[in-house]
Write a structure and sequence with these properties.
Elements lengths: L2 H19 L5 E7 L4 E5 L5 H21 L7 E5 L3 E8 L2 E8 L4 H7 L4
Antiparallel strand pairs: 1-2, 1-5, 3-4, 4-5
Length: 116
Amino acid sequence: MSAKNKSKNDIEILQEKLQSIKGREGIIGYILRGSNSASIDLKDPTKIIDYAVLSATSFEAGQDMSSMFEVDEVHTILLEGEGTKILSRVVNDHRLSIFMEKNVDHNKLSKDLNLA
């Protein structure tokens, strides 16, 4: 199997896992963005732009901070607000952001998605 096909299969498996966790209590939704496509599933579709901007901004901030502090590439970004948080990761050249209520265990979520 070529690396490109393996990457595609990995993303398909990840999308299946995301579908299984999206109904969990406290999960607001997710954005999975690749170079040519995006998969968005949010409980409140009127906020797609808000969440997309938040997702993109968190990745940019992570890159800026890694450059500023001369550390290796940032693999995981966790932003916590008063009532919600966002877990962002790069998975096979795709940017994944999962939005959740603050009380959701993001470490367990990462393990369930095999992102740990």
